[in-house]
Amino acid sequence: MSSKTLKELTDRMFSKMSSDITGLKDGLDPENIALWYNKIIGEAKEMAPPWLVDKIGVKQDPILYLKFNLNISKRAVRYLMMAISDNLDDMPYTTRLYFLKVQELVTQEMDKSLV
User: What is the superkingdom listed in this entry's lineage (predicted)?
Assistant: First the structure.
């Protein structure tokens, strides 16, 4: 293998790694997470009956930008879960992991209230 071919291969590998790392980082960007929350909350409100629409909301912490306070009625949780599930395939990998964790935590909270 010539040194030119080896350099081209190495350059492509580093370029791919750099692109992958940037994609992972961007997936957890607070602005990106906020955009997905807005989309998910909007879709959950569209699915929910009119009397539950005002019981679905999220607020971003003004100091800890990656912290979001989910304010949702127990009766509206299923609409939130459906909206998250409907959007998972379109999310970047790390954003998808974030919202899978949100689903897990909401499920745990719902299970606690049943006990």
Answer: Archaea
Q: What is the residue extent of each domain of the chain?
A: 3-113
Model-wide pTM > 0.90 = no
Please write the tens of the pLDDT for every residue from 15-28. 666 565 555 556 67
Residue 53: CB atoms within 10 A of its CB come to 15
Q: Do 28 and 98 form a contact (C-beta atoms < 8 A)?
A: yes
Which residues are within 8 A (CB) of 113 and not within 5 positions of it... i.e. 6 or more apart?
74
Per-residue DSSP letter, 73: -
> What single-letter DSSP state applies at residue 2?
-
Distance CA 34, CA 48 (A): 21
